[in-house]
Amino acid sequence: KQEVTQIPAALSVPEGENLVLNCSFTDSAIYNLQWFRQDPGKGLTSLLLIQSSQREQTSGRLNASLDKSSGRSTLYIAASQPGDSATYLCAGGSEKLVFGKGTKLTVNP
Amino acid sequence: GAVVSQHPSWVICKSGTSVKIECRSLDFQATTMFWYRQFPKQSLMLMATSNEGSKATYEQGVEKDKFLINHASLTLSTLTVTSVHPEDSSFYICSATRQGRVNSPLHFGNGTRLTVT
Question: Using one digit for the tens of pLDDT, what is the confidence trace for A39-50?
Answer without folding.
Answer: 988 888 889 999
